[in-house]
Structure formats: C-alpha cells, structure tokens
Amino acid sequence: MAVISDPADARAIYDELRAVGAVLPCYCTENVHTTEAILRAVHEVGEEFGIPEPPIIVGFTANYPYRSQLVRYTAAGDALEGLLAVRADLQRLARPDGLYGNVRVMPHLDHGHAQRDAEIIEAGSGFLASVMYDCSELSLEENIKRTKAFVRRMEGTVLVEGIVDEIYGPEAGTQFELTKPEDAERYVAETGVPLIVVNVGTEHRAAAGGQGLYDGGRAREIAARVGRIMCLHGASSLGEAGLGALPGDGFVKVNIWTILERTGAQALALDNLENLGHVLSAEQIDELAGRGVITQEHARRQRGRTPTLDYFPHGNRRDDVWLPAVVKLITGNLHDLGYEKLGTR
User: Which residue of 10, 142, 275, 277 lies most exposed, with the fewest beta carbons within 10 A?
Assistant: First the structure.
C-alpha cells in the first residue's frame, strides 16, 4: 500500500475499526528512527494476526509551542523541512515494493493551528490524511465557530479532528475540568467534525509517567452521546496497562508519543551503563568513579573491558538497543488496543 492521504480512505479505515471494536494508535514522531520503528512494529503485528494491510497513523506537530516535532525532525530546525523529510520517509518506507509496503499509513498533523501552521497545511495537501485543529484554549463558543469554519474549508481535503477542551500538560500548571458530555454533543453537532478529542483526565507529555487520572466513566458517558468518534490524548500518562480499557470506553483513536521516546532513551541509558568499558578509557572510568557518578565496584568491572568500534557507531545504539525496545512497546500497545480483531487469525 502507499501512504493513505484521501480522506474517504481514512474514513473507511475508521469504519473498519468501529466494526470490530478496535482502537487505532496515532504514534507521533520527530525522527526517522521512530518513524521506522512504528512501521516495523505494525508490519510484524500484521503478520502475526494475519492482517493483509494493517493500518496505522503517524502523527507530528508543526509549530505547536509546547513541542514542535517537525522542527526537530531535521537538523535544519525548520518545520517545512521536517514535513518534507517525514513525507519522504513515509513514502520510501511504505512504498508498494518497500519493507513495509503492506502497511496503510495515515499521516496526521497534530495540534494544528490555522494561522501558525498555514504553510504546513498548504504544503501537506495531498499528503496529510487528517489534521487535529486545536482551538481548545478558546471559549467553547469560539472554539466551535472556528472549528466549524475550518471543517468547511478543508472538506474533501483532509479529515478534521476537533478538540473540545484543554488537556493538562506540565507547562499549563493547572488541571482543567473534564469534558462535559453535553458540551461534546453540542461540539460535534455544530462543527460536523468526524473525530473529537476529549479531556477525561489524562496528561500531555508525561515524561516521568505522569499524574493523569483517567476517568473511564466520563468517557463512556460522552460516547453514549456522540458515538465511537473519540480520540484520547495524553495516553503515555496511563502506562501500558491502561490502554486495554479504551476499546470498551468508546475510543477509536489514541495518540502516543512520550512513552516511545522514554522507553528508547531508558534502554540506551541502561545499555551505556552496562557497557561503559567498551566505550570509555580506563582513565575516563576512573574519573567518573572519583566524581561519584558510578561506584568503585562498577568502575572495577568496567575497567577490565576494552573500548571497541562495535559500540561507537550510532547504528549499534539504534539497531541493537533503541529500536528493539520501541518496537516491543508498540507491539504490546497494539495487542492491548484490540488490533488483532482486524486480522484473519
């Protein structure tokens, strides 16, 4: 399969998920390694469950002030360059004769803003399957007004995902009220969005695991009014175990990013500690021990090793440590979210 950019095709994929009661993750990325890890995991799980064309959403923010993922995607530090890079990566990796040619990939702009991201939305035409249009910092009335206008403007071009209320993040410094079911129902009726983000207690960018207190009861109340069109943001604050409740609580999409990078970074940190002697000289190890960074016993064990080229290149860290840890995490997520229901086995 090629990259899925037609909104009609994207709608059909969401209909498949609703029909079987599964939730599709949107994994965000800000580097090519995360992008490939996502596709590799989906490809492997598709083979495991007999899913001929497994779907996935690959998302990214552009000029979102809290985290600009396209800006970070290349060393240029430019959102447009990042968009061009991620587009080239997805088109290369998911080309029909490529390694992940069976994967249906839906590119998604997360936390898009009509003015701030105008260049990205225009440049992404014909590539983006969906845009999350974020007016959550405004009053409900203004949010509805602007989202409705954006839905009309983008009709036939991309699916628009709206967001009813703000969701807590460490930068915000305050916990917002949970989405009221009646507000969600009004928002959908007046804007016409096919997907909505609701606040049910999770936390954005939960680097240390987060303090999110997910309220499944509120999610079910909202779903009873609007149907299975809900998206969950801040899923990394749930931990892996919490994802299993989402299919039964009325969600059809869940955004995941922080836990991917946290898992990969922690795997690298542990591997570096265990293999210091293959990277650092005896003098450097002694210096760390003298500063109290590592124990003398750890220094003694590492001092007997020899620095080797096998541990110096980036490829070792990526292929042998980071990538397997992230692929394993994504594979577990897909199992928890009912992905196997799309298969034939």
Answer: 142
